[in-house]
Amino acid sequence: MIRTSVFSALVAAFSLAAVLVVPALAAPAALPGPAEGVFIGCGVDRFALRTTDPIGGGDHHYTGTIVANGRITDVRLVRAERGDYAVVDGDGVLHYSFHTHGFVDGVDWRAVGWTRMTFNLSRDGALMSTDDISLCALGHHPDSNPFTLNR
Length: 151
What we know:
Largest sheet: 7 strands, mixed
CATH class: Mainly Beta
CATH architecture: Sandwich
Number of domains: 1
Radius of gyration: 14 Å
Number of strands: 12
Structural class: mainly beta
CATH superfamily: Carmovirus coat protein
Shape: globular
Strand content: over 45%
Number of helices: 1
CATH topology: Immunoglobulin-like
């Protein structure tokens, strides 16, 4: 959970269309968000993406592409199972694929020198509903998918 109340207020105040402003004082968060969906923890240059499903909810296949105008480094899988992956294609493109099987999977990364990061998130082969995507503090939902974070 992000403990910076200023960050929480800024996140709530600056969401316009599909753009979310991420101020420089945010610490990364890595807690799962909705019972089913994706939570993205936002930091200054560190990020965490978690896919979550209710226990007993069966297998869901989460895939996505994250494109930053900076360099993506220090990619680390969280609770990876056989077949799960996260790969960087070039300096600023991260692709991931997870099968959740009713638990939590994810990826952590750093984005060095970024000012814009675009997310395209899918579940079971279809673009995810924005209701199932939680961003940064307060569980804010983007207005569209794909969506862009601007620093």
